[in-house]
Amino acid sequence: MKRRDVARILVVDDDRENGKFLEEQLTGKGCKVTWYQNPKRALDAFRAGAYQVGILDLKMPQMSGVELFKLLRQKDPGIALIILTAYPSVDSALATLKTGAYDYLKKPFKIEDLKQIIRRLLEEKGFFIETEVHLNQKLGARIKEYRLRRQWTITELAQQTNLSKSLISQLENAKNSASLVSLAKIARSLKIRVGDLVQDL
Fold first, then answer.
1. How many CA atoms lie within 13 A of 171 on its CB side?
2. Mean pLDDT in residue range 81-100
3. Mean pLDDT for the stretch of residues 159-188
4. What fold, for 7-124?
5. Torsions phi, psi of 40, nearest 5?
6. What predicted TM-score, i.e. pTM, was given to this entire model?
7. Quick count: other Cβ atoms within 10 Å of Cβ 39?
8. How many helices (H) and strands (E) does the chain have?
9. pLDDT at residue 1, as a whole number
10. Dihedral of alpha carbons 122, 113, 26, 177, sign
């Protein structure tokens, strides 16, 4: 699947504070966000193919999120939609998901949970949104690969580098970001260049 660089996200939420928050938090790292407070205005401005993801509030005075969902889907069947609501119930969740929503989140939600859903969704659509998490995962896998080539355990690499076993484990499992000093010690112990660890990341 061909990878694309910039994904466009439509946010429709009549709550100004939440709308601005989502616009600020989701913009960047390969995503461009447009927020509308009025769902009718969002619908009027909507063009098929312009957005890959829509994030819709379920309860809005002018139009419900599910109504807007159906109208957006008519204009663009390919858009993936995520529903947000401050009034969760089993019935509303089931009704929303039956319409074909990609996911459903209850307010208040953790922004990282929403970002994770969006990352997964965009990956499925052929976008690759490079993040610190992805970089750490790649770097951790690279360190582990070189360590296993030498048939060393994490304990042996820790002894060679004078770094803790805990740190080595965290780096390999992308639970921590490596400092340049740590990378230099790891590369020297593995008898490779730092460039070998970070090349093409």
1. 23
2. 73
3. 92
4. Rossmann fold (3.40.50)
5. -65, -40
6. 0.62
7. 23
8. 10, 5
9. 35
10. negative
Task: Give residues with Cβ within 8 angstroms of 112, minimum separation 6.
Answer: none
Cβ neighbors of 170 (< 8 A, separation 6 or more) are: 176
Tens digits of residue pLDDT in 128-158: 555 566 778 889 999 999 999 999 999 999 9
For residue 41, the SS3 value is: helix
Domain extents in the chain? 7-124, 132-198
Contact 53, 83 (CB under 8 A): no
Which amino acid makes up residue 87? Y
Per residue, the 3-state secondary structure of 79-124, as one string, reads CEEEEEECCCCHHHHHHHHHCCCCEEEECCCCHHHHHHHHHHHHHH
Cα(75)–Cα(25) distance, integer angstroms: 27
For the domain bounded by 132-198, which CATH number is listed?
Answer: 1.10.260.40
Instruction: Pick the closest to residue 197 from 132, 157, 137, 142 (CA basis).
Output: 142
When the pLDDT of each residue in the chain is averaged and rounded to a whole number, the result is 86
Q: Which of 131, 132, 125 is nearest to 4 (CA)?
A: 125
The Cα–Cα gap between 152 and 186 comes to: 12
Q: Which CA distances in Å does 124 have to 3, 26, 62, 130, 138? A: 10, 18, 32, 14, 19
Q: Residue 2: its pLDDT value, please?
A: 40
Whether 45 and 67 have beta carbons less than 8 Å apart is answered as no
Contact of 186 with 196, CB cutoff 8 Å = no
Cα distance between residue 106 and residue 88, in whole Å: 6
